[in-house]
Specification:
alpha+beta; 4-stranded mixed sheet; disordered C terminus; globular
Length: 257
């Protein structure tokens, strides 16, 4: 809970590093369910081991040949995408009612934050009305997907930094066959990328777009956000991790209240 500026003004920033996707997703759900009107909004920066995630309306035919990469049926909007090392994900956990934001405005803010970051690095990017995300020319560099529960958001936007793009060929990214993907390392000089802290800059850009004060969260709060790592997956987590031959199950969706 915030003890300085009001909760409506603060965005608590937690760099989580590389974490298991399922573990992070469950932590976002717990955070959202436990928050109150006094809970500060939060932004978690994370990276995941290789994983395909399927949106709640995801269609099985868009998962072409996942091979040894697991497929997780999740509760965000959108179709299938890929997460892996070298991709920066900003998970945005905000009280949309308090900020007077609709889903479209929040999506616009996240896309705009990535566009702002890329512009600072000399890369011209844009959003598309027909396909959410951020694009450089016709290639997609960032994907967005959200869930809203109890008037609060979780999930967020994923920016390709220097990840291996090959796994995107195993799916129709975001449900679009043949969609070209790109990454920041191919658009700027190695020296510029090495000198950039994209996580902190993206967090600042998101806070700016939302009109919030970016405030680093104490380390213990970031650790508490994820909780203790379990050695074994819970039964619910195991049910979400589909075998490569069965990705057509129904997403675990809870009705917003």
């Amino acid at each position: 809970m915030n003890t300085g500026a009001s909760a409506a003004q603060v965005l608590r920033y937690c760099p989580l590093g590389r974490v298991d996707y399922l573990h992070c997703w469950r932590a976002m759900q717990r955070f959202t369910d436990a928050r109150t009107a006094a809970t500060d909004d939060a932004l978690w920066l994370a990276e995941h081991p290789p994983v395909f995630t399927q949106g709640q309306a995801g269609r099985a035919e868009h998962v072409l040949a996942p091979g040894d990469i697991p497929v997780v049926q999740t509760d965000r909007g959108g179709q299938v995408t890929y997460h892996g090392p070298g991709q920066l994900i900003a998970y945005v956990l905000v009280d949309m009612r308090r900020l007077k934001l609709g889903v479209r405005k929040l999506v616009d803010a996240l896309e705009g934050a990535v566009i702002d970051l890329l512009a600072d690095l000399g890369v011209a990017a844009h959003a598309r009305a027909d396909a959410p995300g951020v694009y450089v020319d016709s290639a997609k560099i960032a994907s967005v997907g959200l869930r809203v529960r109890h008037g609060c958001s979780y999930h967020g936007i994923a920016l390709n930094l220097d990840l291996d793009l090959a796994p995107f060929a195993r799916i129709n990214p975001c449900g679009h066959a043949g969609l070209e993907m790109t990454r920041l390392v191919d658009l700027v000089t190695p020296a510029l990328l090495a000198a950039t802290d994209p996580g902190e800059r993206l967090a600042a850009a998101v806070a700016g777009r939302l009109g919030l004060q970016l405030t680093p969260a104490p380390g213990y709060q970031c650790e508490a956000a994820l909780g203790r790592r379990l050695q074994r997956r819970s039964g619910a987590d195991a049910a979400c991790l589909r075998s490569n031959s069965d990705v057509s199950g129904t997403a675990p969706v809870e009705r917003s209240r």
